[in-house]
Amino acid sequence: MRKADAICALIILAIGILVLCEAARLGIFGWSTSGPEPGMYIFLLGMGVSVGSLVVLGQVFVEWRKAVPVKPFIRPGGLRPVLYVAVPAAMMVLLTEFIGLYIAAGLYLAVYMRWIGKHKWITVAAVSILLPLVSYFIFDRIFLIPLPKGRFEDLLTF
Prior knowledge:
This protein has 158 residues and is mostly helical. 70% of the residues lie in helices and 3% in strands. The protein has 2 domains: 2-66; 79-156, no CATH class. It is flat, with a radius of gyration of 22 Å.
């Protein structure tokens, strides 16, 4: 467990340092006519990520010094629930490029609700159709924020 924690903390620390460097490039301190410099909030987020990963690394070091018994990173049977979440989510991300966010989200909801939640088909159909449709009208029509529509963009012009 210590090794996995340390590896994850180091990866997250590297991401945090990358975010800090990007924030510094955008400008961290100072005030412009429209408010704080563009990198200030990014810097704060990167600092939080970096400090959190350093805390985890410190905990790993303390456990190593105390010689605490090492628990397995994944307990027997613990990988299956993770895969139940990760596989549909990964498929949704991949499908978003081709069929768009709205249709991919509807498929994701349908698969997840039926496979994991064991909901009735009528509930699955209602949620997986209505939620993406409402999201489309809220983001695309009301807030004018275009989200990826994939190959079906021409069909989604109401």
